[in-house]
Automatic annotation (TrEMBL), chains A, B:
<keyword id="KW-0804">Transcription</keyword>
<keyword id="KW-0238">DNA-binding</keyword>
<keyword id="KW-0805">Transcription regulation</keyword>
<dbReference type="Pfam" id="PF01638">
    <property type="entry name" value="HxlR"/>
</dbReference>
<feature type="domain" description="HTH hxlR-type">
    <location>
        <begin position="9"/>
        <end position="112"/>
    </location>
</feature>
<dbReference type="InterPro" id="IPR036388">
    <property type="entry name" value="WH-like_DNA-bd_sf"/>
</dbReference>
<dbReference type="InterPro" id="IPR036390">
    <property type="entry name" value="WH_DNA-bd_sf"/>
</dbReference>
<dbReference type="InterPro" id="IPR002577">
    <property type="entry name" value="HTH_HxlR"/>
</dbReference>
<protein>
    <submittedName>
        <fullName>Helix-turn-helix transcriptional regulator</fullName>
    </submittedName>
</protein>
DNA sequence: CGGTATCCATAGGGATACTG
DNA sequence: CAGTATCCCTATGGATACCG
């Protein structure tokens, strides 16, 4: 029955939700990419991403660490320095990101190709 | 240099952002799935998704329509009835969703398996 | 039925200052 | 340097009532 199907589908949706929670939001991917690129330190990452505040960066880094996409190490010395690095696990995301990328490209084509017939399409 | 690379990466991120905007959020996929399942009418969709308010559904349907994932048709008669249907374009999302699904499954394994050790983060 | 309009609560984000 | 703490503010969402 329809209801049952819907229940099945929406529970099958849970892992999808998980993934979206992990990489969704305004900053997560930007930060991850910054770290992939080799930025290691808090300020360094912060500077590499315009408009990103320390509070948000701090929170996002914790999330990324909790999801084992990055590691955090505190180095000896003064002033304190920390080092963030991507994990192997984080690299499994690249395929997903590629898929999202491809669909996004294709979606734009779709939206714009149809523009000739319908002017008033407010898009994305 | 690093800055340039980051610019390149983040601009390559735009299509990814587009995709996340299209399917992200709390309700978009639930609504799309409901429609994929054959629910066509406003109330019908609303009832199929617990906790979804009319205001939000209304907005989300507009977004989905703007992104050409669904079509909206107003049927003759009284009271008014509308009919929402999935587009062909919407079906191209299924592959993306599958990818998100698979990663989500895998991610859970990763998170739960790794309690003991910190390194060895190899996953698929 | 298929929505808008309205009011209100809340979470989250920006800016800034501050601590170890 | 690496963050917390604080204040503030707006965007979103729930609940409800109402209109064509």
């Amino acid at each position: 029955m329809k209801k049952k199907e819907h229940k099945e589908c929406t529970s099958a949706l849970l892992p999808v939700r998980d993934t979206l929670d992990v990489i969704g939001g305004k900053w997560k991917l930007l930060i991850l990419i910054s770290i992939w690129e080799g930025n290691k330190h808090f300020r360094e990452i912060e500077r590499s991403i315009p408009k990103l505040s320390t509070k948000v960066l701090s929170k996002e880094l914790k999330d990324l660490e909790a999801n084992q996409l990055i590691t955090r190490a505190v180095l000896n010395g003064f002033p304190v320095r920390t080092e963030y690095k991507p994990t192997q696990h984080s690299k499994t995301l690249k395929k997903v990101i590629l898929e999202l990328h491809n669909w996004g490209i294709n979606h734009r084509k779709q939206i714009f190709s149809d523009k000739s017939e319908k002017d008033n399409l407010s898009v994305v």
